[in-house]
Specification:
By secondary structure, the chain is mainly α. The chain folds into two domains: 1-31; 36-76, no CATH class. The protein is 49% helix and 0% strand. The mean pLDDT is 78.
Length: 77
């Protein structure tokens, strides 16, 4: 899918195109498959972004509301 030259005009197509650009722009990058069951942190962050509507900076230590998702994902990782 990423190697094809097709441009999708859907929400997923925009995400795929952003990923393709990042892969090209980053000096060192690796794309790994993560099963849905180990994707709790990404889901929690997406939900937070949708509901909060504020700027949030996460430096070094995870916020308390994310710790459980981090622990679960690391067990599955």
């Amino acid at each position: 899918m990423l190697k094809e030259g097709n441009t999708w005009w859907s929400n997923i197509g925009n995400v795929v195109e952003d990923i393709r650009r990042l892969i090209v722009d980053l000096v060192v990058s690796r794309v790994l498959f993560q099963p849905w069951c180990g994707n709790g942190v990404a889901h929690a962050l997406a939900q937070f972004g949708l509901t909060e509507g504020t700027i949030f900076v996460w430096e070094d230590v995870a916020p308390p509301w994310l710790e459980l998702s981090l622990a679960r994902d690391m067990e599955l990782g």
